[in-house]
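Request from the bench team (R.T.):
"We need a structural guess for the complex before ordering more cytidine-5'-triphosphate. Sequence and SMILES attached. Just send the tokens back."

Command: build protein-cytidine-5'-triphosphate structure.
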Amino acid sequence: MNALHENRRANRVRVAVVIVAAGRGERAGQAGEGPKQYRMIGGKPVIRHTLEAFAGHGRVDAIAVAIHPDDTALFEAAADGLGRDMISVHGGASRQESTRLALVALAGHAPEIVLIHDGVRPFIEAGLVDRVIDGIADDAGALPVVAVSDTLKKRGDDMYVEGTVSRAGLYAAQTPQGFPFQAILDAHENARRSGLGNFTDDASIAEWAGMRVRLVEGSPDNVKLTWGRDIVLADQRLGANAMRGLPDVRTGNGYDVHAFEEGDHVTLCGVDIPHDRKLSGHSDADVGLHALTDALLATCGAGDIGTHFPPSDPQWKGAPSRIFVEHAVGIVRERGGRIANADITLICEAPRIGPHREAMVAELQDMLGISVDRISIKATTNEKLGFIGRSEGIAAIATVSVVYPGTLPE
Ligand SMILES: Nc1ccn([C@@H]2O[C@H](COP(=O)(O)OP(=O)(O)OP(=O)(O)O)[C@@H](O)[C@H]2O)c(=O)n1
Ligand SMILES: C[C@](O)(CO)[C@H](O)COP(=O)(O)O
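Reply to R.T.: structure attached below.
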């Protein structure tokens, strides 16, 4: 075991982090919010997510951030309230130069190892930071990678394929890339002295300087936000995360209609109301309760009233529709559902519903087992339009919300 590993086990290694954030993000565009590292994802600037990941990591001792001189106010706002001192340093014209300047700024802190990370990789997780720290040796850096999974093509003339490149042994490099501090600082200084300024990552500089670089497992989630679309997707991803842990509330709706025929009363929401006609139907033709039954079943994908009580079955002839509602409530409860509220609208020219509303609410309270403030029964005419307007029948619409166990699936 080398000295770095021994000290790391004893937690005696000083770990510094460089976050490079001085680029202009030209490929992503600015969208009125400044360069991409300051654009908002999940309600915070991109770089705030990155800073939080490192500021909250227990093994990180010092953080230096390379920023563009024009971004001072944006950076201060993004870093405000992190509760951790950070060195901010003006970056250079290239990523390589920004990294070097931040390394120089850290030299006074004498860290043993340093992790160098893109400010625009906001989905960095603590486990990956640990893997990189643990992968660094006295004489070797650590590079997080993911295996290339697309087939690789080499372009020839115009847009024609010249050949297929084997992807065996090929990996995409991520950050944070970790190194013994002094070795990577020296490599950067030597590269600069040699006039080499086009390295796109720090592992390349380490390789150029003769340092071995060990591959460690990266993460497909640890994407670099390069294009405008990457930022839109990152925002959506965090939006989806915000849904994590929300209660599994589901809404069902139901609709039913029955025609009038000769008779002397209608049954609506469990209440018999004297009328000069009755509603025709196999059961008691209670449109309100039929719509309610469908709404309840809809909250758990359990079919509709006809699935459970086929009109062809003689046993439901003249049956009180309360049976249907109670059956649907049973199905909801079997699945652990708790009814949050029910709302029924009856649509008819007559009879008048208002005088019977209280009795109807009492019926529903009994059937659903919820308090009256969670039950709504409304009525409206159809302004004399259509079949309802011609008093040929009554329609009902029901909406129900049910809270099921667990949380909203991702
Ligand atoms: N002069 C530079 C250039 C880049 N970076 C940083 O290096 C990281 C990765 O670089 P890249 O995605 O290429 O960012 P930009 O250079 O900003 O993007 P573009 O090339 O589209 O302008 C970013 O966090 C970026 O801010 C930097 O600190 N200094
Ligand atoms: C360092 C880097 O993130 C490794 O993948 C990447 O090379 C930097 O971004 P660029 O677009 O290549 O400048």
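Two things stood out. The pocket of LQXTBERG (ligand 2) is lined by residues 95, 118, 173-175, 200-201, 224, 226 (CB under 6 Å). The first strand starts at residue 15 and ends at 21.
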